[in-house]
Specification:
Number of helices: 10
Structural class: mainly alpha
Length: 204
């Protein structure tokens, strides 16, 4: 299992997981302190998930791009496993709120938003690199939580604001699924772009 430890350390997973845990806990604690609501709103939950996903996005490449693309390692399987474990970790952190009086729910909505945003982040990492993978999830989340966005029977609004649509909304679920599958396949098969040597070489 030493290779797993080395893999996690090389991709800064402990730091990312600690950051994601702190962000989810902070977003859970604020409503607990200032409101009597027992359910965290979809907007607040989406922001929490987005921040956690952005933290995880920093782990999508390592320090050595050549190693990340070597044919000696089955990288597609490892990358896919990395994303699936990240999704499981974020979902598990959100699920811990179920033992408290203030909860992230419904669970189906949390699962949908986590999968969709993580897929979007993975797609961004594939196209722009892990350092810029945050742009797409941040932009779409900020659009979705705008005051004029909300549950709507209009298909375009359901897609644009899929993050805050009720659980079970077909268009929102489909959008999240497409993002999740596309991001997973793109990242697993291609990984992040190879950066210039000047960006990866150690400082002297």
């Amino acid at each position: 299992m030493r290779w797993l430890q080395l893999h996690l350390r090389s991709r800064r997973v402990p730091l990312a997981l600690t950051t994601a845990t702190a962000l989810i806990a902070l977003t859970w604690a604020l409503p607990l302190a200032y409101t009597d609501a027992t359910t965290i709103s979809a907007r607040t939950a989406s922001l929490a998930i987005m921040l956690a996903v952005v933290a995880v996005g920093t782990t999508l490449n390592g320090a050595d791009d050549a190693l990340d693309h070597t044919m000696a390692v089955n990288w597609p399987v490892r990358r896919a496993g990395h994303l699936l474990l990240a999704a499981a970790a974020i979902t598990a952190l959100l699920s811990l709120s179920m033992i408290t009086d203030t909860r992230y729910e419904p669970f189906a909505l949390m699962l949908r938003n986590t999968a969709g945003l993580l897929g979007l982040t993975a797609l961004g990492a594939t196209l722009l690199g892990a350092a810029l993978a945050w742009i797409a999830p941040l932009t779409w989340t900020l659009i979705a939580v705008l005051p004029m966005m909300g549950p709507s029977p209009d298909l375009k609004m359901q897609v644009a604001g899929w993050l805050i649509q009720p659980a079970g909304t077909t268009a929102a679920t489909t959008c999240a699924a497409v993002l999740a599958v596309t991001g997973l396949l793109a990242y697993a098969l291609r990984g992040c772009p190879v950066r210039p040597v000047s960006e990866t070489a150690p400082d002297r």
